[in-house]
Amino acid sequence: MTTGLYVHIPFCRSKCGYCSFASIPWKEALAERYWRAVVREMEIAVAGQERAPETVDTIFFGGGTPSLLPAGHIAGILDACRRLFRLDPDCEISLEANPGTLTNEKAQAYRSCGVNRISLGGQSFADEELTAIGRVHTVRQIAESMAMLRSRGPENIGLDLILGLPGQTEHSWFDSLDKTVALAPAHISIYMLELEAESPLYQSVAAGRQTLPEEDSVAGWYLQTIDFLDARGYGQYEISNFCRSGCECRHNLKYWLRQPVLGFGAAAHSFDGGSRSANVADVARYVRAVENGMSPVAWSSVVDAEAEMGEMLYLGLRLNRGLDWEAVRRACRSDRLVDCESALKEMAGIGLVEWQGNRVRLTRRGMLLSNEVFQQFVQPWADH
Ligand code: SF4
Question: Domain with 189 in it: what CATH number?
Answer without folding.
Answer: 3.20.20.70
